[in-house]
């Protein structure tokens, strides 16, 4: 079964003024679509993999044939990373998390402001293209950064929240000012969606 591009959960202009509509149109309709199309192309002739979810493939990346493994990492990662990215953002969002997620962020990082600073630093210091993540690893929250479209799933980690720091995610509006983009991005984080991911990850469910 071919992988398909998931629709955006909101209109392309819904995240204005923090993320502009043109960026969303290009990011979702061209970049994410290209990852999906190229993943399908890489998986041609591999029926056993075609019938698995992108996340399942990434979790077992070492079982993917060497000849197509890097293409699957690049494009499968691009698909999974972006699918999560759209889901954890939304209009009239921002603020702070609450409940168990907030408690565990405060317990792990001292307070929410420190968590924000550390995640921003992970994104700003990522050389070139990549992502900054809050992941669940060995039952604990951690902040990590990955290059290109590498997925935390490949390292047995569950992404709870991630910010895309590829230039295509912000350059039309913020040019080379990645720190400004990350500061603005907090205003579109859908903490209810992030908390739901965290709850499901803690329960061992696939997210």
Write down the CATH topology of the largest domain. Answer: minor pseudopilin epsh fold
Number of helices: 9
Number of domains: 2
Report on the biggest sheet: 3 strands, antiparallel
In which order are the strands of the major sheet placed? 2-1-3
Q: Any idea what the radius of gyration is? A: 17 Å
Level-1 CATH class name of the largest domain = Alpha Beta
- The rounded distance between the terminal residues' Cα atoms is 20 Å
Name the helicity range: 40-55%
3D shape: globular
CATH architecture of the largest domain: 3-Layer(bab) Sandwich
Sequence of secondary-structure elements: HHHHHHEEEHHH
What is the tally of beta strands?
3
**CATH homologous superfamily placement of the largest domain:** Iron/manganese superoxide dismutase, C-terminal domain
Overview of the molecule:
By secondary structure, this protein is mainly alpha-helical. The chain has 2 domains: 21-87, Helix Hairpins (Orthogonal Bundle); 99-202, minor pseudopilin epsh fold. The chain is built from 9 helices and 3 strands, in the order ααααααβββααα. A 3-stranded antiparallel beta sheet has the order 2-1-3, with helices on both faces. β1 (130-137) and β2 (140-147) form a beta hairpin. The model has no long low-confidence stretch (mean pLDDT 97).
């Amino acid at each position: 079964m071919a992988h398909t591009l998931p629709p955006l959960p909101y209109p392309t202009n819904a995240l204005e003024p923090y993320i502009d509509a043109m960026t969303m149109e290009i990011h979702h309709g061209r970049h994410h679509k290209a990852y999906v199309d190229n993943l399908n192309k890489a998986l041609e002739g591999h029926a056993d993999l075609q019938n698995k979810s992108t996340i399942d493939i990434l979790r077992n990346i070492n079982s993917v044939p060497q000849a197509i493994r890097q293409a699957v990492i690049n494009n499968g990662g691009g698909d999974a990373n972006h699918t999560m990215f759209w889901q954890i953002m939304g209009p009239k969002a921002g603020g702070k998390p609450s409940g168990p997620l907030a408690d565990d962020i405060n317990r792990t990082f001292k307070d929410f402001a420190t968590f924000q600073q550390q995640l921003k630093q992970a994104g700003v210091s990522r050389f070139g293209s990549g992502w900054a993540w809050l992941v669940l690893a060995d039952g604990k929250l951690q902040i990590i950064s990955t290059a290109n479209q590498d997925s935390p799933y490949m390292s047995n980690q569950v992404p709870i929240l991630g910010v895309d720091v590829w230039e295509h995610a912000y350059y039309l509006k913020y040019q080379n000012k990645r720190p400004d983009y990350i500061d603005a991005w907090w205003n579109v984080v859908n903490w209810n969606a992030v908390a739901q991911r965290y709850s499901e990850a803690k329960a061992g469910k696939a997210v």
